[in-house]
Amino acid sequence: MDYIRDLELQMASLQRKIRLLQDLRFFFDSSSPEELALFGEELSSVATASGESLASAITTLIAPGTPRPQEPMAAAAPPPPVQEPPTPPRRAPERRSAAAPAPAEGRGGEVSQEEAAPTPRGAEASSQGGGGELDQAMAAIERAMVAIPATSFVMGSETVDAEKPPHKVSLSGYRICDHLVTNREYALFVAANPQWAKDRADPELRDEGYLEDWSGGSYPEGKEDHPVAFVSHHAASAFAGWLGKRLPTEAEWECAARGGLVGKKYPNGDLMNDKLANLAKQYRGTTPVKKFEANGYNLYDMAGNLFEWCADWYAPYSPGEAVDPKGPAEGEYKVARGGSWMSGAGALRVSARVDMEAAMCAQVGIRVVDGGSTA
């Protein structure tokens, strides 16, 4: 019996190693050269449970019994040039037949807020979405709104071309939710607005990945407090409008992410690792909102966990001072910010920006705002 138990333990250990190697192979096969280069730089700053660096742990895993390196792995070669933050792969949205009615559009093909928000707040929404539970959830979101005073800051950076030129931005005061919208909160929205259910949402407004990790109308078990993922920009706008709110402009998002700090790379300073944010696949998926330390504005997950949709169409920055910028009137892609649990630290910088199709449903979540000059 002891022999069988030993074999079972060895088998379990082997299965864990196989899963680890499969995850590593998937990461290397699916990552861009830029992401791999950034990951190499970041290995030495990520600590394992034993306290040693991830770089050292991987070296030992690959070559057991070899001496620990005296310098971090990433330092063995000259640091790679700074590259653009990795952009998640785009998937083309499914197209409807010509006979299907076209969705209502606002500027540049975007669904207007009035028609994207299918059910207003109030008695009708409460009766459809579970009454008291819905009212409590809305009240909780309202309590979570953090006031950002009117301010000026330097937006962008000299790090990569997409973030140039750094330019002064002045913003009116606004409020932003301290957390990403959770699965529980989004489920109430779907219950009140069944046209946004996983299998019923208009294919013009989302791709085939919409609510990919849900089963029918149910989010993953035990993940009610995880941020909702796999939502399109259209779905995010509809959710925000249903609450009587909106998505943040790109400038509002970056200002909030900086948390009042000046000239820092990340929401909490110049250091980033898996003790400060959910990044680099360290947690093998999303983590509950508010798991990590808040920034100076008391906002959570402004780096990592999920990218976040912004209201703006993606476009190069214009030089000169801007006041309450809203981005161009139309465009091809929307802006997403913040990086995800799959991203290296480079994508988690407060100035990093990526472009995504509005119908794309990937590792992107929702944060709502109100007030400001766009209200």
Can you put this structure into words, describing what you see?
The protein has 375 residues and is α+β, with helices and mostly antiparallel strands. It has two domains: 2-70, no CATH class; 110-371, paralog of FGE (formylglycine-generating enzyme). The protein contains nine helices and ten strands. It has helices at residues 2-30, 33-42, 54-62, 113-116, 123-129, 132-143, 183-192, 233-242, 250-258, and strands spanning 145-148, 151-155, 167-171, 174-177, 307-313, 322-323, 334-337, 353-356, 364-365, 369-371. A four-stranded mixed beta sheet has the order 8-7-5-9. A three-stranded antiparallel beta sheet has the order 1-4-10. A three-stranded mixed beta sheet has the order 2-3-6, with helices on one face. Helix 5 (123-129) crosses helix 7. It is globular. The N and C termini lie far apart (70 Å). The relative contact order is 0.16.
* Terminal Cα span: 70 Å
Taking the sheet with the most strands, its summary is: 4 strands, mixed
CATH homologous superfamily (4th level) name of the largest domain: paralog of FGE (formylglycine-generating enzyme)
What is the CATH architecture term of the largest domain? Answer: Alpha-Beta Complex
Q: Numbering strands along the chain, what is their spatial order in the largest sheet?
A: 8-7-5-9
Class of the largest domain, according to the CATH hierarchy? Alpha Beta
Strand content: 5-15%
Give the % helix: 25-40%
